Structures are given as C-alpha cells and as structure tokens.
Amino acid sequence: MRIVLGVGGGIAAFKVASLLRLFTEAGHHVTVVPTEAALNFVGQATWEALSGNPVSTSVFDHVEQVNHVRLGQEAELVVVAPATANILARAAHGIADDLLGNTLLVANCPVLFAPAMHTEMWRHPATQANVATLRAHGAHVLDPDVGRLTGKDSGPGRLPEPASIFAAAMALVDQEPPASSGGPGVLAGRRVLVSAGGTQEPLDPVRFLGNRSSGKQGVALAAAARDAGAEVTLVAAHVEVPLPAGVRVLRVGTAEELRSALVEETGNADVVLMAAAVADFRPAERLGTKIKKRADGDDPVIELVRNPDILAELVTLRNREKRSQLILGFAAETGDGAGSVLDYARQKLERKGCDLLVVNHVGESKVFGQDENSVQILSRTASEMQHVEGSKNTVAQAIILRVAAELGV
C-alpha cells in the first residue's frame, strides 16, 4: 500500500520514526512529507533512511513529475503525525503553501490525523472548530492521549503511541467496509446514544458507592461514532477523561439519573451503546449528615437495594414500541468456581436481550482506568465471537465497524 506520512513540527516528531518503521516493516511503501518546522526536530536524512524514499517539503521539487499533485493522487492512505494545531488549522481551511498542504487537498483516500500539542491549544475553541471541520469533511482525527507533555504539565495533548496510530490507520483500510458499503461516514445519518463512566450512589454528603470505571472506553465509543458520521448523544456519569467535541453531552451522577436520561433519549436513537458502568446496588437510605464514628465502637450497618436494570429496560422499551434499533451492552465480568467470564457473559446476553455484548475480563489492574483493552464481542445471531485488542480508541473503532455491519451499511 502507498502511504504518505505527513510530519508536523512538534517535539513528538521523534516518536513518528517508530510509526514509520511499523509501516515499512508491514510491507508498505511510505513517502514522508514533513513540514519545514518538522525538520528542526528530526532531520531529512533520518526520514529518507527509514523510508527508503526521497523526502521533500517544497512544491518545486520534482516539478517534472508534478509531485505536489502526484503524491496525493497515488496515496492509498495519508497519516499526519504529529498533527499540530497549525497543521489542523491549515488543513481545515485548505491552505496549501507547502507539499503536505497540497497533498492533503489532492488526496482521495482515507486521511488520519494524530494530534499532539499542549492542552490549552487542544482545548482552544479554534482548534476544536478545526477538528470538527476536518471530521465533517470525512477526515479521521484521533483524540490525543492524556499524559505528560513537553514540560512539567500534563493533560490531553500527548501524541498517541505509534502502535495505536498504526492500528487506527490499518483499521481505516483493512477493517473498514469499502466506500460502496459505507466507508468513511459509515454511520452518516444515524443517531447514536452512548452511555459512559461509572455511576456514584450517595451514602451521605461526603461518601458514595462507586466503581473503578474511568469512562475512557465509552468516551472513545462516542468519538468513534462521531467520526463515522453519526449524530451522537453521550450520557456521561463519572468520567476521568475529557469529553469529546462535536457530540451532545448530558451529565448524570447516579444510576437512577442515568436511567431517566437514557429512557428519555432512547426513542430518538438508531443505535444504543451502553458502555456505562452502572452500580448494581445503592444505599437504601441517603443520610443528610456525615456518618460519624460512634463513641460506643459500634459499626454502622448499611442496607443496600438493587438499582434498575437499565439495559434490560431499554431492550423492553424497544421491543414494546417495535422500533428498529440496535442495542449493544457491556459486560464487566470475573470468573469464579461456578463459571468462566464467557459463561457469565453468555448468560447476560440471553437475560438482557440486547443484540451485541462486549465482554471485558475485569480486575484491579485490568480494563478500568487503563489505556488498553481486550474484548470479546458476542452476538445473539452469530455463534462466532469477535476478539478485539489494542488501545481503547482502536477497540471503539472496531465496535463501530461491527455495529455498522449489523445494520447492513
């Protein structure tokens, strides 16, 4: 496959050398097109040595080949990493004052941007508007990772790891259906309802019962659905990551609040993705004052009651109203002496009645709060399981593709 790898002028450019190696070792023909600023971080000789191809930044090199047009016309995939705030702005507005800008204007293939910049730049309304414009034009823009940046600051803006960018790029050309079956914008015109994060059940004014969910997978699902062209509503409980731009967000706290929001919204959705980690139980009584340690040494007794089964209720509502709606649930399971993770997952799929079930094997250091995930996708209509492993963004993209396949688009 012929890949154009655009490189922006940011410190994260050094990580892109590893991404280039992943592409070439997979057998792809890669032409690196850096900006002038990028060469201040990693030099031309490095890109030429690793790619085996000449490197240029100017539209006036190889004029006899009309290089500024040829590269984009021949490309089967364009990846830009790091995609700086400047590159995103220029690409969104069609500015073509160098070789990379011209290539992006000409390219008629999947285009993937992997942003990297300081948090303030990423969150700036201008950058968010540029990202929304690029996505509306059919480009795929990853959300940056959250972590340590160039200086002492941390936050969203870190370049995703090369392996994650590679997986996302390959998903565009290897796993995504061809344009005649959907392609980029595979969920265009669809309305997708996503729940994310962990519910928190108040015990007293300062304490609550909760779980370890960070909301990363649900937020990634909302972003992936948005990138696939859907109109997305995200119902977010407690999340520890930035919420995606370009989606409608409803904030909730408890399981009852989550249920109310989802029941209100589900009638307008073509697809429901239930990724929230809903607490199974809540305190029977919410106290108005903080529970104190008693002088007599007696420990308090906390009575718990069941929370509503939201997923099963949404399925019941769909069936009762005879809506054409796909519902996907998540199962965070642990095995025990009575059964394995998949045993319990299959029972849950049958009990809930949803169309697809994404199964996680969870634990103290598994899935919750992590950047990587490994899941099995079970279906009510297909006997074979689908295994997906990688970053939570990669898993989200695979789930969206599976949803599109189930919808027949």
From TrEMBL:
<feature type="domain" description="Flavoprotein">
    <location>
        <begin position="1"/>
        <end position="165"/>
    </location>
</feature>
<comment type="similarity">
    <text>In the C-terminal section; belongs to the PPC synthetase family.</text>
</comment>
<keyword id="KW-0460">Magnesium</keyword>
<keyword id="KW-0285">Flavoprotein</keyword>
<dbReference type="Pfam" id="PF02441">
    <property type="entry name" value="Flavoprotein"/>
</dbReference>
<comment type="function">
    <text>Catalyzes two sequential steps in the biosynthesis of coenzyme A. In the first step cysteine is conjugated to 4'-phosphopantothenate to form 4-phosphopantothenoylcysteine. In the second step the latter compound is decarboxylated to form 4'-phosphopantotheine.</text>
</comment>
<comment type="pathway">
    <text>Cofactor biosynthesis; coenzyme A biosynthesis; CoA from (R)-pantothenate: step 3/5.</text>
</comment>
<feature type="region of interest" description="Phosphopantothenoylcysteine decarboxylase">
    <location>
        <begin position="1"/>
        <end position="191"/>
    </location>
</feature>
<dbReference type="InterPro" id="IPR007085">
    <property type="entry name" value="DNA/pantothenate-metab_flavo_C"/>
</dbReference>
<dbReference type="InterPro" id="IPR036551">
    <property type="entry name" value="Flavin_trans-like"/>
</dbReference>
<feature type="domain" description="DNA/pantothenate metabolism flavoprotein C-terminal">
    <location>
        <begin position="187"/>
        <end position="404"/>
    </location>
</feature>
<keyword id="KW-0456">Lyase</keyword>
<dbReference type="GO" id="GO:0004632">
    <property type="term" value="F:phosphopantothenate--cysteine ligase activity"/>
</dbReference>
<feature type="binding site">
    <location>
        <position position="280"/>
    </location>
    <ligand>
        <name>CTP</name>
    </ligand>
</feature>
<feature type="binding site">
    <location>
        <position position="330"/>
    </location>
    <ligand>
        <name>CTP</name>
    </ligand>
</feature>
<feature type="binding site">
    <location>
        <begin position="308"/>
        <end position="311"/>
    </location>
    <ligand>
        <name>CTP</name>
    </ligand>
</feature>
<comment type="function">
    <text>Catalyzes two steps in the biosynthesis of coenzyme A. In the first step cysteine is conjugated to 4'-phosphopantothenate to form 4-phosphopantothenoylcysteine, in the latter compound is decarboxylated to form 4'-phosphopantotheine.</text>
</comment>
<feature type="region of interest" description="Phosphopantothenate--cysteine ligase">
    <location>
        <begin position="192"/>
        <end position="409"/>
    </location>
</feature>
<keyword id="KW-0511">Multifunctional enzyme</keyword>
<protein>
    <recommendedName>
        <fullName>Coenzyme A biosynthesis bifunctional protein CoaBC</fullName>
        <ecNumber>4.1.1.36</ecNumber>
        <ecNumber>6.3.2.5</ecNumber>
    </recommendedName>
</protein>
<comment type="similarity">
    <text>In the N-terminal section; belongs to the HFCD (homo-oligomeric flavin containing Cys decarboxylase) superfamily.</text>
</comment>
<dbReference type="InterPro" id="IPR005252">
    <property type="entry name" value="CoaBC"/>
</dbReference>
<feature type="binding site">
    <location>
        <position position="290"/>
    </location>
    <ligand>
        <name>CTP</name>
    </ligand>
</feature>
<dbReference type="Pfam" id="PF04127">
    <property type="entry name" value="DFP"/>
</dbReference>
<comment type="pathway">
    <text>Cofactor biosynthesis; coenzyme A biosynthesis; CoA from (R)-pantothenate: step 2/5.</text>
</comment>
<keyword id="KW-0288">FMN</keyword>
<dbReference type="GO" id="GO:0004633">
    <property type="term" value="F:phosphopantothenoylcysteine decarboxylase activity"/>
</dbReference>
<feature type="binding site">
    <location>
        <position position="348"/>
    </location>
    <ligand>
        <name>CTP</name>
    </ligand>
</feature>
<keyword id="KW-0436">Ligase</keyword>
<keyword id="KW-0479">Metal-binding</keyword>
<dbReference type="InterPro" id="IPR003382">
    <property type="entry name" value="Flavoprotein"/>
</dbReference>
<keyword id="KW-0210">Decarboxylase</keyword>
<feature type="binding site">
    <location>
        <position position="352"/>
    </location>
    <ligand>
        <name>CTP</name>
    </ligand>
</feature>
<dbReference type="InterPro" id="IPR035929">
    <property type="entry name" value="CoaB-like_sf"/>
</dbReference>
